Amino acid sequence: MFIGRTTTGAASDGSRHPTRRLVETFRVGGEVRQRTLLNPGRHFSVSREDWPALCRRVEELTAGQCALVPAAPEIEAEAA
Three-state SS for 75? Predict the structure, then answer.
């Protein structure tokens, strides 16, 4: 799981906007696929050093696990 940067569709003036997405990578047969789990948009407020904690928390939530160590409130809000 990782947070990647992508650009989204063109606005009416032709400009493109960068955005962040939480992406899961997996294999289907011999092919690598990616699935977007969280699309917080271009106003992503979590700082880069907190991205690993956010990825771990989303993994815990998708697996139905409780957090061993509580996440910071802003990370919990983004993950939920």
Answer: helix
- pTM of this structure: 0.63
Q: SS in 3 state form for 4-71?
A: EEEEECCCCCCCCEEEEEEEEEEEECCEEEEEEEEEEECCCCCCHHHHHHHHHHHHHHHHCCCCCCCC
Place of tokens 């011999």: 30
Tell me: pLDDT of 76 over 90. Answer: no
For 40-65, give one letter per residue: b (16+ CB within 10 A) or e.
eeeebebeeebbebbbbbbeebeeee
